[in-house]
Write a structure and sequence with these properties.
mainly alpha
Length: 141
């Protein structure tokens, strides 16, 4: 039987790289579009950040791909909030800019700190400590 560890390592590295790239792209797109349609633009940009980070966290094992996506999302959004040498700013210091800048940090912290869900191996778990008589009584109700 062939050793599958190199394939698993490449798969994990590839998913981490893809998650990081997705975080960077969302950081750019969200930073440019959060000012559009004043209250709705920032809400949609933050909702997209939630969907990306939760999706990466649910579909990959471990926190490394989610951490990579979150670091690049927050890093790119923070970098675009800094003034350029000419003095222009992509994320201005207004309420929508503050909500976007701080919102991605809060979302990333929540998604990364959420505990891992342990899935049962054989289907739905049985009730702990129940006997066949108790099960019969419980189904009679």
């Amino acid at each position: 039987m062939p050793d599958r560890r190199p394939v698993a390592l490449l798969t994990r590295a590839g998913s981490t790289a893809l998650a990081a790239l997705s975080g960077a792209v969302l950081g750019i797109v969200g930073s440019f579009t959060h000012q559009s349609l004043p209250p709705l633009g920032v809400v949609l940009a933050l909702a997209t950040a939630v969907l990306l980070l939760v999706g990466v966290r649910v579909t990959t094992r471990g926190r490394l791909p989610t951490l990579a996506a979150a670091l690049l999302l927050v890093g790119v959004a923070g970098w675009l909030a800094l003034p350029s040498p000419s003095g222009s700013v992509i994320v201005p210091a207004n309420p929508a800019g503050y909500v976007w800048s701080l919102g991605v940090v809060v979302i990333a912290m929540l998604v990364l700190s959420w505990p891992a869900v342990q899935r049962p191996l054989g289907g739905a778990p049985d009730i702990i400590g129940s006997s066949p008589e108790e099960d019969k009584d419980r189904t009679a109700l």
